[in-house]
């Protein structure tokens, strides 16, 4: 939807039409046209795509076929749709972005990223952060979290994960000691993979630019698809896509990378943590 919306916006602007004029042509609200162009609406129907191409004077068969195919693919439910009854509102958007991403860069000062969590650690997190939730719901959310991890083994397009973790992540016990030991062992195994980078930001580095909380940066295989910043909070999930929003977060992540232990030092740190937990 993001790619389709971007292409439709370019065609509209090149043809000299306003959003309001397009809305009049489709007999819908300007807000719907805006949501289509930003990838936040339900996919337009094939008839609507043809109407827009006619309005914009687009006669190139290749462009027409590409946009019609994008609309068709956007209308198909994602693999994660079977879990949509249990995950939070708008989280499906994140899973869809994560599934399409070529790279994910993440900083956290509280938890291991979901793509690297063991089942035991993930269950503890879900049960603690969702008090009173039915065991069946926890089971399904755990199943979803583990299913997401399959992306780490995806060959085409390749997927790269780069995570910077504050030392606090390892100093706050999540579950029994065996849970934390298993999680650290999982990280030590994961960092051997060529597409996974983990860095630890130790306490002795003092204050850092990530003190205001976790965030993720998602990049996509198509260079024309802009990066997305994802920020999760108690007030809801935010998706930032404008260059003036994404650029500062890129800078922030780079500063965190520069402050953190390098991958070799991180491996040594994790081994020390593992020994302390014995």
UniProtKB/TrEMBL annotation:
Residues annotated as domain HTH cro/C1-type: 8-63
Gene Ontology molecular function: any one: DNA binding
Signal sequence bounds: none
Chain segments annotated as coiled-coil in the UniProt record: none
Pfam families xrefs: DUF5753 (PF19054), HTH_31 (PF13560)
Name of the featured protein: Helix-turn-helix transcriptional regulator
Provenance organism: Actinomadura livida
């Amino acid at each position: 939807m993001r790619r389709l919306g971007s292409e439709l916006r370019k065609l509209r602007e090149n043809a000299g039409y306003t959003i309001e004029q397009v809305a009049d042509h489709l007999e819908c609200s300007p807000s719907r046209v805006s949501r289509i162009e930003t990838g936040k609406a339900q996919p337009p129907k094939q008839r609507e795509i043809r109407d827009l191409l006619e309005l914009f004077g687009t006669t190139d068969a290749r462009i027409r076929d590409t946009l019609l195919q994008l609309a068709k693919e956007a209308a198909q439910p994602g693999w994660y749709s079977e879990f949509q009854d249990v995950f939070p509102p708008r989280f499906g958007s994140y899973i869809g972005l994560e599934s399409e991403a070529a790279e994910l860069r993440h900083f956290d000062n509280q938890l291991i990223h979901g793509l690297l969590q063991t089942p035991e650690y993930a269950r503890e997190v879900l049960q603690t952060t969702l008090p009173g939730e039915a065991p069946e719901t926890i089971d399904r959310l755990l199943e979803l979290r583990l299913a997401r991890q399959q992306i780490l083994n995806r060959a085409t397009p390749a997927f790269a994960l780069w995570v910077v973790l504050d030392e606090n992540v390892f100093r706050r016990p999540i579950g029994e000691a065996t849970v934390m030991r298993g999680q650290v062992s999982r990280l030590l195994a994961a960092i051997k993979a060529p597409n996974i980078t983990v860095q630890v930001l130790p306490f002795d580095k003092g204050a850092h630019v990530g003190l205001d909380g976790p965030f993720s940066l998602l990049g996509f295989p198509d260079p024309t698809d802009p990066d997305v910043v994802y920020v999760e909070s108690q007030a809801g999930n935010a998706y930032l896509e404008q260059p003036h929003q994404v650029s500062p977060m890129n800078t922030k992540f780079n500063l965190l990378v520069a402050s953190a232990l390098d991958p070799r030092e991180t491996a040594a740190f994790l081994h020390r943590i593992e020994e302390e937990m014995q």
